[in-house]
What we know:
The complex is a heterotetramer.
Chain B: E1 2-3, E2 12-17, H1 18-28, E3 31-36, H2 43-56, E4 59-62, H3 66-77, E5 82-87, H4 89-104, E6 109-117, E7 123-127, H5 132-137, E8 146-148, H6 153-170, E9 173-179, H7 180-184, E10 186-191, E11 198-199, E12 235-237, H8 251-272, E13 275-278, E14 285-290, H9 293-306, E15 311-316, E16 318-320, H10 324-333, E17 336-340, H11 347-354, E18 360-364, H12 375-386, E19 394-396
Parallel strand pairs in B: 3-4, 3-5, 5-6, 6-9, 8-9, 14-15, 14-17, 17-18, 18-19
Antiparallel strand pairs in B: 1-11, 2-10, 6-7, 8-16, 13-15
Helix pairs in contact in B: 1-2, 1-6, 3-4, 9-12
Chain C: H1 34-48, E1 55-59, E2 74-77, H2 83-93, E3 98-104, H3 105-111, H4 113-122, E4 126-132, E5 135-136, E6 142-143, H5 167-174, E7 178-183, H6 187-198, E8 203-209, H7 216-219, H8 225-235, E9 236-238, E10 255-262, H9 268-285
Helix pairs in contact in C: 1-6, 3-4, 4-5
Chain D: H1 11-14, E1 16-17, E2 26-31, H2 32-42, E3 45-50, H3 57-66, E4 73-76, H4 80-92, E5 96-101, H5 103-108, H6 110-118, E6 123-131, E7 137-141, H7 146-151, E8 160-162, H8 167-184, E9 187-193, H9 194-198, E10 200-205, E11 212-213, E12 249-251, H10 265-280, H11 283-286, E13 289-292, E14 299-303, H12 305-320, E15 325-330, E16 332-334, H13 338-347, E17 350-354, H14 361-368, E18 374-378, H15 388-400, E19 408-410, H16 414-421
Parallel strand pairs in D: 3-4, 3-5, 5-6, 6-9, 8-9, 14-15, 14-17, 17-18, 18-19
Antiparallel strand pairs in D: 1-11, 2-10, 6-7, 8-16, 13-15
Helix pairs in contact in D: 2-3, 2-8, 4-6, 12-15, 13-14
Amino acid sequence: MNPIITGFAKGIERFGIEPSRVCVASDIPFEPEVVSHLGIDFFHTTRGRSIAFGTGLKLANPTLRVVLFVGDLMTLGGNHFVHAGRRNMELLVICVNNFVYGKIGGQPTPSTPITFSPYATFEEPFNVPHLANSCGAVYTARWTALHTDELTISMTEALGKQGFSVIEVLSPGPNYYKGIKEIESNLIDFYFENSVIKNGEDPRNVGISPEGKIVVGKFTDKERPTFIDSYNTQLTKVLGDKFIPYGGKNG
Amino acid sequence: MMKANPKGILSGTHNLSGSEACVEGALAAGCRFFSGYPIQPAIEIMQRFLARAPQVGATFIQMEDEISAIAALLGAVWTGKKGVTATSGPGFSLMMENLGLGVMLETPCVIVNVQRAGPSTGIPNRPGQGDMMQARWGSHGDYEIIALSPSSPQEMFDFTIKAFNLSERYRVPVALMSDEYVAHLREKVVISPASEIKLEPRRYYEGPKDKYLPFKRDEDFVPRMVDIGNGYKFHVTGLTHDERGYPIMSEECQEFNVHSIVRKIRRHADRIFEVQEAETDDAEIVIVSYGVTSRVALKAMEQARESGMRVGSLKLITVWPFPEKRVAELAKKVKAFLVPEMNYGQIVFEVERCSYGNANIVFIPYGEKEVDDPDDLLSAIKQAIREKKPRKGIIEYNK
Amino acid sequence: MGSLKTIESKEVHPMDNLLRMDRIPHIWCPGCGIGLAVSAFANALEKAKIDLNKVCIVSGIGCTGRVAGYVKLDSFHTTHGRAIPFATGIKLGNPKLKVVVFSGDGDLISIGGNHFIHAARRNIDMLVICVNNFIYAMTGGQVAPTTPLAAYATTSPYGCVEPPFNIPYIADSSGAVYVARWTALHIRRLTNSMAEALNKTGFSVVEVISPCATYYSRINRLGDGLDMMKFYHDNSEIRHWEDTKNLDIGFQTKITVGKFVDRERPTYNESYNKWLSGIRGAQDEG
Amino acid sequence: MNPITNGSLGLGVLKMKADPRDVNTGVYYIDGDVAAGQGALAAGCKFIGGYPITPSTEAAEAFARIAPQAGAMFIQMEDELASIAAVVGASWAGVKSMTITSGPGFSLMMESIGFGAMLETPFVLLNIQRAGPSTGVPTKTGQADMMQSRWGSHGDYEIIVISPDSPQEMFDYTIKAFNLAERYRCPVMVMADECVGHMTEKVAIPPADEIEVEPRRFYDGKINEYLPFRPGEDLVPRMAKAGDGHKLYITGLIHDERGYPIKNEEYKSTYTKRLVDKIRLNKEKIIELIEEETDDAEVVVVSYGISSRVAVKGIEKAREKGIKVGSLRLITVWPFPDAKIAELAKTVKAFVVPEINYGQIVFEVERCSYGEANVVLVPHGGGGVHNPDDMFDAIEYASKEKKRIEGTIEYKTRLEKSVFEEGGKLQE
Lengths: 251, 399, 286, 428
């Protein structure tokens, strides 16, 4: 987690947004000290609901910059993910992925690693950038937690994007690996060493499979009207003067 | 009743945690399907099942959330498998909608809830008993359900089998309301030989194929089942339906359908409910408890008896249906009921209701101390004995 | 419905053994396309030559959700959005069955969107028939995640502001092995597609664009069911193997139909069995 | 809106009037769902997240039509899980928010209701009950989610539930629900039903200056000293909103006053206790009842929602026959008026409880009467309302029964007899 938060903090600083306008909703609890250091508002939501929660925050106060940290491979929140993408809600989703566990050291044995695996290894994982792209995200990128510079650049760029942006970060999740320090450090190195940067690659080709390299990079960067934009456009068109455009200074 | 299939039964004496015992119980009961989603502190049940699945040829799936876990479970049960899912507080809340579907389709299945401290995310790795009322009332609409509450790994094993038997017998989802403490507690568990484990077979329909009515009730008021894929071509729906399973949107059908679902359990409540009593014959104080708190209750009772206080214990094995009659009977004899719970008052309201003002009710809420410390209970017993006048309402014990 | 007598007639319609004639008449409005989809499905069942006793159909909630009640197979009408996980359970409980999920766009893509993408990712062997009428019809014409931009619905009284889902694209990108789209007009091609998909192993999706004369076309003043059919006739373009990302549907724009994806991937059951035998092998060695 | 947030001021001062821009003053002929939408608007609600479900959709549709002109937002989310999560989020962004649903959607919302209660988030949930369980009869009425509203989420929490019985009350009590939610910083549920939701009646919307609105009780102290969960007056903490530099840390885990998660059991027992106590100790201020002729009554009809309107017929008939009947209508069903029932139980012979379910609130009445009065349940499975004759018969029976009977006496309705005993045919 830590390299990601560092990247995030640097992103906020470089982009130059007032931290108090940044609001993080997350499935993963942050350390209180970290939040206080970042100077943001932080909401630890129920599992999987952070994107829906963030949608509420953003719509009720469009001046906020809402960032979501999503763990658990979006399993519970997959639906909120695809729909927020479709609406092009102005949210930045940082998807912390730790799923390739079964890959290291070959196949798992029934007694040990699989029990730690958040995902049974006989299932194929999502290709997150492709899914995000196909449901309409305007920005998708993937990095490992060790690509610190690239991650910071991506965070800075994505904070400035108008629309649904997704950054997938491959990183061992602390919850599943408690007490197995050895694996944790190995895994993160494994990701880094096996990755290859291919900016602008078609997201459909960046699926992660047990064979081959992990493709990282920035895959999507496009423009689409956000939810609030199209809301205002459509309603002004229909209602004319009677409509109070949404998302003014005070929401 | 029939005997269990020896395949998959680890007969003998083991040192198992509650979670492991639960899985062994499920396998002994012939359960061959598990669908779940990882959640603390129910994760061990899932892991154990996954580890045991290859050995017994069981099917396991980790779904995308708890909603789909229970939906998949219901689907699997209709193929003829016995199935189980395990979860905890937040997951249990997500299952509520499809628990209602299970009730409406009268699908036998077992839902293990390893209760943790709530509400919301609460404390994921600490025990609680805050979902007891939810088990009975958590889904919308009227229904009745069976809930069991084990207090030890041995009971996790036994009650899991009992839960499967009850669910097959009455065609109703059964909730096994365990808690983090029991699920993680490691104790001796005796697994009897298969020949001594009695199982309730599924109540299959045995008539001509074209005459099958999925919701026609037999003499016990329970409808008969068939498996998918055998040419019965039946239809079932979550809408209010008649005997054929076809939806009819009328108040008569609603009365027929839903009242039958409620009656099915209420009519057999006396047969379903089970309590364990200890020294209630001459007791002036009776501790009503369930699950892990009953361990403390028994300890407190013994200590109190040693110092000459006439204390008895009523341990609820089935929390739902609630043993109304037994509590009402006891209320007339005793001075007070003591109800320790790891929540801020749930089952105590039921005890209050069923004692009809005949006994004082003392409630001991979520303790600050470890669950197995009987001190609070002992001093509450002393207080209750000292109390001379009958008092209405729940007296909350002050530490 | 329940009190209606079974229609007694000496003549037997060829569909009679596939439909629950004691449930007819059905609840769908005149001009609706769901009946056509059901009829195509019934024909496809015959065409696919599979044992009808081993086919089971699961529906969710909504107009299309009622399909399960009219098809004479083992049929389940489940809760809103949960048809796919329910069907997953059936498939895993008894892998010999052919499971068909027949439901609407709101049910499968809105509330059940998560189950949809996850079942596709797992490649659970089932056929999903998604009738897309661009609106929530059963509840009275609310905006759906498939409602085209600027189209009207009761909960978007000033025009829909959200871009719609492109169902084949989302199915494709989450891993479906067979994806096709037809309108309710393309009965023959639809039947062929369904028959083909019934014999396909893996997560297959057939999207059926269907008119909703009562809500979608009435609110948007598009005429009745027949007018919509006419529109489909004039504006559908058959383009097989088109890249799924180009399949967006706008408000009264061209609709691209065809078969877009047909590939092979190991199903969940296959991977699971492989995993099981791997473990069994390991245990035997140990 | 300009809430007065000076902590030193008393409660009375905190009350303010509705914003005239949000109030469509006038007399209308509208249904309950639409009235609830108007009520929400008048109460200052600026955000509704919903998902279509019969029979609650009209309320969402009504709000969707009026929202854009009032600077409010209506969004139809992808499911009920998302709707309620968005509503909790919107509330923390500083606006009053509401969600609308019915039975199955209500069940899906259970997890996040606990989340809302844990975060002490003010929001309103409108549940237009239909006949259940599961899909049941979507288009017809029921009252079987009453216990669910109190106990449906896991863990211990307390909640406020209001049950209106007419479109006018849908308007009035939606406003009251917002006021209570803001006052006690907790989710408040308006448990209406299909009958009330679809009933069209006269609804008078008063001028804005006659509508009392409770503004959000924002924290107004120094920025770095804000503690989101420090109990203030009546155990209720002050609220802040996201984006004001408070560096909020809000979690559904058990937390301390700062909002930081703690894993100390000891603290839990005091912290979550407050969630419960905040409502239990303020019970008398929250409870609203309508009591009629209970002084010398021998039978009291305890009812809520639509059942109370049907009960009136039975009560009138009984009075004509000389039976002394009183009526106790629960406006707030939760917290339950324990003390009031216990007090009445001493003087009356029996309670008659009509409910459109097979026994929910009747068990509470039974509990609180401590065996001092008989308790008669007039059940109805839903899909319609009671037959007033049943109501009368039950009252008559209750007034004649001499024996004290333990437990709830289930009155056998005409409907039940016709379905189960007389071999009645099930008809559409």
